[in-house]
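So, can you check this one?
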Amino acid sequence: MMKRILGIVAVISCFVAKAQLLTWSPSFPVENNTTQTLTITVDATKGNKGLLNYTPNGDVYVHIGVITNLSNSASDWKYVKFTWGTTSTPAQATYLGNNKWQYAITGSLRTFFGVTNTSETIRKIAILFRNGSGTQKQANSDGSDMYIPVYGSSLAVSILQPSKEPRFVPVPEPQNLAIGSIFTFKADASKPATIKLYDNGTVIATATNTQTASTTATVSGAGEQQLIAEATDGATTTYDTLSFYIAPATTTAALPAGVRDGINYEAGNTSVVLVLDAPGKTKASVIGDFNNWTETVAYSMNKTPDGKKFWLRITGLMAGTEYGYQYKVDDSIKIADPYTEKVLDPDNDASITAATYPGLKAYPAGKTTGIVSVLQTGQTAYNWTSTNYTRPDKKTLVLYELLVRDFVAAHDWKTLADTLGYLKNLGINAIEVMPFNEFEGNNSWGYNPDFYFAPDKYYGPKNTLKQFVDACHKYGIAVVMDIALNHSFGSSPMVQLYWDAANNRPAVNNPWFNPVAKHAYNVGYDMNHESLNTKYFVSRVLEHWLTEYKIDGFRFDLAKGFTQKQTCDNNGGNCNVSSWSAYDASRVAIWKGYYDTVQTKSSNAYVILEHFADNTEEKELSDYGMLLWGNLNANYAQAALGYSTPDPGGNTWNFGNGIFTQRGWTKPHLVTYMESHDEERIQYKNEQYGNASGSYNIKDINTGLKRVELDAAFFFTIPGPKMIWQFGELGYDYPINYCENGTVSNDCRLSPKPIRWDYYQNAQRKEVYDEFASLIKLRFHPLYK
């Protein structure tokens, strides 16, 4: 508890109040005061520090709207004034120096925001400060929006100190309070009133006929603390409450036997042991459904003697019940569990329908912010039925690369399983599915990962994914998981746990990520694959999918990036692609180590690399057992176009680089392809750029389709594994940069593409399918072998 040590007097304490993240004047803005000028000041040294030391100073703008009585949630902004990423002069903030910017609203708030509905009342102003392009924003320390309460004409009271972060439900700013700390407790009223200050239910100060009351208090114990300011003017009594948590001294204790990072379910289905890898952090606790999302002493985590991990045993759980939870680290960082197998996302779950994911647990709105992890004891086990399945030989693979979103309209595993007969008849013996572990957003290619153990809910529940894998195996079809382990994106808890807000990048002490990328073409935040922490994490990821979901292997995105050899400058720019592509013994060692891990967890599982490095390096990896992508798109496209001369890039219709012996390889581990998710569609190029100089017009759709068949005759008869991009067997002719509105733009590369199963009903396109199927069948003829 806390006790009063001084009355309502000005005192000097050991805890001096500092500038707040967001301040405003007047302190009690009202919605319809025509003479009011509301000035709002942000301090970028606070909160998420998204604009800390940002220049140019004049390139800062507000994103501003209101929460009204008609808003459904904290994110339901109404009457938003300006468009994100634009530089409208009325949105521009004024730089005050010392990392502070100010924005002013003159006159009635209703007029400024355009609120004309007389039954609608402004409850809060919602605001963010951002740079002109919208790539950096100043927000609360957890990244959430900032809010300014709007008051009516009646008496109001507000706690000013301890300083508050202006979240939807305000919380104290990080202040490093501990047992024994002295702090100022101050409150203001909107009118002269009697003000009482309470700590933990006890009145510690009273002031009459005043608009300000202040005292000091000391923290004398651990646990949840509650401060209340009460104001009364004889007719009205109103309150403001601020709660915060004082952590107990961290207990040092060794990990229980047999547990490891993440969720450890115990026998009996009523308890778990949670383990968080957080070397160098001071303290951690668990918040969640089991403690009403409030830090309590009982949920403070133990710290291992080496200072690297925190752990906690949680008991009393109901078998089969899903519990949401997060970790609170060092009082200021709140993250989901990196090892969770399911997340709740406040920004994206609402657009996942019940048809795709029945019974999806609701996000705990109003109780926490950020992504939430989920645990569940006593889960229903999946009963695998394809027990006699044998993986196809890697050298005979015919892979079908697909993006679930753009292959079946329902974008779920159940519907995808319905296409297996079509793929089996085509001759496919392996499906390579573009990334389906949790990625940011829903509408994505999936190369923006944040959680690696959780199937993305946009494609359905985990057991329907297992049903899909099981069904594939019944057809003798392998499942290859495309995965991006070169990088993660900003919602990754491992990125957030060690973050350099001043430079907007992973901190130098991040155990998993480099502060800046070591190589070219990096996206997101670059992983350090020489770190033991990263090696352990990746090994756990690989084990999880191979054993829990029985997938047959991985296609690793940007495999050439698995290196600490620096080929970019210290800011991640001015990259030397030639040096990056040169033989790299350290990268070879990393890949051999990961390959060994895969084989240990699941013998003969496939490892396919998008590598494109020096041929000597690729040969060495091939000899070790790995498969490598071989891009022949330009060559097959040039062959189909019907020109005898090379294209502007010098590409001819020479397919030699797709023949492993031509590259001096000893094993047929080269996965060649005419098309992939990254390459332009050959039939589209035929129709746009085909040779039409004579009577043989390749721009004609049917003639172009014949040219696709011609390509296939060369492609499938060359030995080695092959890959087809979805609908390539039907001559898909929408460009890779096709936009949903029918235009073509580089900005639309990742946009959804038309799903054209009706092509199969077209006689000319069905002929392409049949030609592919016949040639694939020929590959398995004894004479071919």
